[in-house]
Amino acid sequence: MDAFTVEVRRGDVVEAVHRVHVVAADEVHGDAALVCLLRSSAKPIQAIPLVEAYDDLDDDELAIACASHQAEPAQLDAVRKLLARAGATADDLEHGTQPGRPEGTLGHNCSGKHAGMLAACRANGWPFEGYGLPQHPLQRRIHELVGGVEYATDGCGVPTFATTLAEAASLFERVPPRIRAAMQARPELVGGEGADDTDLMHARPGLIAKRGAEGLFCADGLAVKVEDGSTRAIRPVLGVVLGIDEFVSVPVTNSRREIVGEITVGA
Fold it and tell me: Which of 70, 79, 14, 106 is nearest to 198 (CA)?
């Protein structure tokens, strides 16, 4: 089947159109062989060295290690908890800062993943310095877990991996039960208020989901890629593919919070 067309309407005018490729359990829309980078959708896999290293991790520690968080108070508390486990501080986080985010490196949306990486390094006796470099033992282990794929550098400085959309749809088959349970127990830590992955896990208990940059979204048996990288086209496609009525139409609002249009899958 053809890729989905998602239309952004303001009033009766179509202002923008996005093409969206989807591989689901029993259907393909668009190009299943499309190559994309996993970006933050790989975080549940990147957290495996952490869960391999400890048998006493709490749900909040594992969920935040899988998160692209919004610096909400509970999320920052979970990052601090992982840093304490690692015997590290925010100064040890090697991802830098993001404009407009609070608390310096702590507020970076990948700080939970990086804190988990530091904790895994501590448990394994690996150095903190350079933990994000491809040659570091931690990143070599993650490369093994993802598979023998090409990599580039992610926005937070660690390797990210190239894969086809079909392969991305089966990615979460490799997520261990302990990580799955933590994400399901604490979905609000994985994304945050209004995040597509958090909202999908609330709408479909039992699923795990993780959004990535440039319009990638992965869940159990599902991968979605917006061709132009826009994330706003993801939710209506999830609504259609998964039969979630409340996702099918996304309102377009103005600065007065008035609804002035909608984002929907086109005919």
Answer: 70
Q: Which CA distances in Å does 33 have to 5, 10, 22, 44, 56?
A: 18, 33, 11, 22, 40
Residue range 154-175: average pLDDT?
96
Residue type, 252: V
pTM of the model: 0.96
- CA atoms of 205 and 265, how far apart (whole Å): 24
Phi, psi of 176 (to 5 degrees): -65, 155
Quote the distance between the C-alpha of residue 260 and its chain's center: 29
C-beta atoms surrounding 11 within 10 Å: 9
- What torsion, rounded to 10 degrees, do the Cα atoms 99, 102, 104, 108 define? -70
Coil, strand, or helix at residue 26? coil
- Per-residue buried b or exposed e for 76-101, using 16+ beta carbons within 10 Å of the residue's own CB: bebbbbbbebbebebebbbbeebeeb
- Picking from 30, 27, 48, 63, the residue whose alpha carbon sits closest to that of residue 222 is 27
Please give the pLDDT value at position 148.
Answer: 66
Unique residue bearing structure tokens 């209506």: 236
| DSSP-assigned beta bridge partners for residue 163 | 36
88 phi and psi, to 5 degrees?
-120, 175
* Cα distance between residue 122 and residue 106, in whole Å: 19
Residue 145 one-letter amino acid: L
pLDDT digits (tens, 9 = 90+) for 51-87: 999 999 999 999 999 999 999 999 999 999 999 999 9
**Dist. CA 248–CA 235, nearest whole Å:** 7
Using DSSP's 3-state secondary structure scheme, residue 246 falls into helix
Domain range annotation of the chain: 4-265
Residues 6+ apart with CB under 8 A from 26: none
